[in-house]
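Case study 2.
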Amino acid sequence: MKILLTNDDGIDAVGIRTLYDRLSAVADVTAVAPADDQSSVGRQLSRTVELTEHEMGYAVEGTPSDCVVAALGSLDFDPDMVVSGINQGANLGAYVLGRSGTVSAAVEASFFDVPAIAASVYFPAGEFTFEELSASPEHFEEAARSIKYLVEHAPNVDVFETADYLNVNAPVSSDGDASMEITRPSHVYRMDAESNGDGTVRIHDRIWELMAEGSVPDPVGSDRRAVLEGRVSVSPLTAPHTTTDHEALSGLAEAY
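Prediction:
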C-alpha cells in the first residue's frame, strides 16, 4: 500500500514523525508536508510552491492543501490513501472542519478521489498549557495505533465507498486500551467576541474552556463527547457541500 502523508504542524513536528514510523511498518509512506507550521489555514492555496527533498519525502513552502495538490498533481506518485496528521491539538466540532489545515488536506485529497484520513490528538486543557506544550512521541501513540488500524482495515470493508474521508481524534496516549466510537461532528458552537476598548476585539472559543471543566454540552454520539470521555472518535464525512431541493427558493428563482 502506498500512502501520502502530510500535516499542518510542519514536516519536522513530532506527530507526523510518529505516524511516519508507525505506518512505514505496513505501507510505503512518502511525506509531502509543509516546511513550517501552517495551522488553521484551512484550504488556502498558493500560486507556486517550492519543494525540498527531506528524509521522509519532501518539505513544501506552502499549505497542507498545496502539499496534496503538488504531490498528486506533479509528482510521479499514485497513492492508495492520503493521511494527514497527527495534529498537535484536537479538530472537533462541525465549525472547526473548514478552519483546520489537517482536515483540509484530507478534503483536498477527496476531490482527487483518493481516500483520506485526518488525525489529531486532544491535549486536555486542564493538564497541558498549549503555548508551553513540549509534545513527545508517547503523546501520539493512541492516535498512531488507531490510524494504523484504520489504514489496514477500512479499505477492506469498503468504508470509503460511502465516506470520502475520516476525521479521527484521539485522546493523549492511554496505554493502548482506548475504545473507538463512530461519531458525528458536534454542532455545539460557543464562539464570542469582546471589545478591549482600544479598537481591538478579542475572539474567544469558549468550547476549550468547557472542555477543561469537563462540562461540554455535546450530545452522546458527538465527536467532542467521545474524546472528552477517553475514546477515539472517528467521523466518516463527505467533502462536497450538499445541495437540496428547496421549494421556496425555486419560487423566488421563477419570479426573478
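Residues 2-187+217-255 form a domain with the Stationary-phase Survival Protein Sure Homolog; Chain: A, fold (CATH 3.40.1210.10).
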